[in-house]
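A protein record pairs a chain with a discrete description of its three-dimensional fold. The following entry can be read in just this way:
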Amino acid sequence: MYRRLGIISVCLVALLVACGIPDNGQVSTIQSKDLRQLGDTLPSTSTSTTPPTTIVPTTSTTIVDTATTIATDDVTLYFISGVQLKGYPRPLAKPTGVDSVLFALQQGPPAGQPGVGIRSAVPTREQALITSTEDNSGVATIELPPGFFQQTLPEDQLFAIGQIVLTVTEVGGIGQVLFTQAGLPLQVPRAPTGGLSNGTEPLARRDYVDLLNPATTTTTSTTTTVAATTV
């Protein structure tokens, strides 16, 4: 029993020492200001309840208008209809020049219903590539490749040249046409005479306008009176 009392006494002494009893044996009361100072030295145990900030990525969509308006000119191309030439408008991208109208002409008549009954005497680009040069004088020089006329029936050769001259002179600033082959002047069929040009004189629309309105063939009867000579 005494042993137990001794153990309890030791524990009480230790407790009193821990509570701050001074060495003189008197109990000292802890002041509130001391508690404040004690609190200042203790680490904060408060837990933040503010939720973490979540950054939501944003995606912006930019709509790009890919539609492009292409400026065009209506250019008249000439093709064969029946026994004459007729003009057929076709929109071509600006700026229109001699090469662009020749390119369109060598593509042939319109496809489908608009091209019914229409044909061309001008060979395609695969058959005979036609090129041109301009010198800002109003005269376009058309280079016909070797074999051009071999690609065209003899009776259609006048139509082929008429198609080219009438179509090219539809281009603004072009009023006359010269033809060359291998860079040299070339004689070509010329209307209405049915002969050939001299190769050095520029040709104009007036030289082929008769192909647009072929003259009606008429038969004229002529009576010749022969006077009898009496011997």
Observations:
- The longest strand covers residues 72-81.
- The chain has a mean pLDDT of 78.
- The beta strands are 72-81, 84-93, 118-119, 131-134, 139-143, 176-181, 184-185.
- DSSP finds four helices and seven strands in the chain.
